[in-house]
Amino acid sequence: MAQVRLNHIYKKYGDVTAVKDFDLDIQDQEFLVLVGPSGCGKSTTLRMIAGLEEISDGELYIGDRLVNDVPPKDRDIAMVFQSYALYPHMNVYQNMAFGLKLRKFKKDEIDKRVREAAKILDIEHLLDRKPKALSGGQRQRVALGRAIVREPQVFLMDEPLSNLDAKLRVQMRTEISKLHQRLKTTVVYVTHDQTEAMTMGDRIVVMKDGVIQQAATPTEIYQHPANVFVAGFIGSPSMNFIQGQLSEEGGDVLFQGTGLKVKLPQGRAKSLREKGYVGKEVIFGIRPEDIHDEQLFIESSPDSVIHAKVEVAENMGSEMYLYLSGIADKWVTARVNARSQFGAGAEVKLALDMNKVHIFDKE
Ligand code: ADP
């Protein structure tokens, strides 16, 4: 068990700065997820923690120990990769035992740890099998088992589920979360999948171009994204963004975009005034689920009623995605109940939940 401290860490490959001023304390027993699009520096960050990449600048602590120059095998970490990296000629038992054997553990101790881990992962019946006789999910469990037997202070996981099919991925997501609760170890987990990040992380770090955009709990990230990038990356379908201006009119703060003029609630108006946003060009954000078609909501929200045309209606079974024109330069997505039964071409009246609106600086 250990805290991991990344103190103003940089990684440079020649002229490319892959990770820039990464500054974060990962708490003991925390499940921390690094998420972001391909190439944003997630793996490089993880590999620096593992000791597989040299740190260009900054300090890395695992527990109280400065480990910048400590080789990977002495860092007391275990890494799980997306490719599993199992030895094909060894059976499951031998694969799990291998790392301990290398470290000269006694046979009894190895046996105890392998059997314990196999029990936790429910692969006791597979110990004699070779990897080729295992399913993808079973191989993934063995890869986890190999990390567990080491009883490391920190688990590092690099997209461990990306080779599994969708259903198995959901199942293993839950299993890894349960495993974390049981082992109470610090986990740093890399993924490009925002759903994995949201469902597994105690805390999520959203990265872009090697820079941390926001580090916060899933709820905080969802409800209070720090910028347009985070807001657009987390949430599906993605948040709608509309460019426009905030203005003061008869004691109210209004947002006006191309096809949209709405009044902000008094509480929001006050804080927007204080932050100096009034009179400025801004980006107005609203999530698809915060656009409502229920009559009651529309009647009680006269300040935020919009008229739009349904261009495309996608029925997802229990809900429906409406792609709407007439509100902004591009289509706006609304997520409504499938009972709504709107079809393409329909002229609709909807209301925005103005308490859920986000206002961002124009970038
Ligand atoms: P992610 O894991 O988020 O997809 P990476 O950490 O793999 O991103 O890569 C971050 C950036 O560093 C990318 O621009 C990538 O091209 C660059 N990069 C990674 N490894 C190397 C390397 N060995 N040499 C040069 N550039 C690299």
From TrEMBL:
Residues 4-234 form the ABC transporter domain. Keywords: ATP-binding, Nucleotide-binding, Transport. The keyword Nucleotide-binding applies. The keyword Metal-binding does not apply. PROSITE patterns: ABC_TRANSPORTER_1 (PS00211), ABC_TRANSPORTER_2 (PS50893). It comes from the Bacteria. InterPro entries: AAA+_ATPase, ABC_transporter-like_ATP-bd, ABC_transporter-like_CS, ABC_transpr_MalK-like, ABC_transpr_MalK/UgpC-like, Mo/tungstate-bd_C_term_dom, NA-bd_OB-fold, OB_MalK-like. One of its GO terms (biological process) is carbohydrate transport. PANTHER family: MALTODEXTRIN IMPORT ATP-BINDING PROTEIN MSMX, OSMOPROTECTIVE COMPOUNDS UPTAKE ATP-BINDING PROTEIN GGTA. This is Sugar ABC transporter ATP-binding protein.
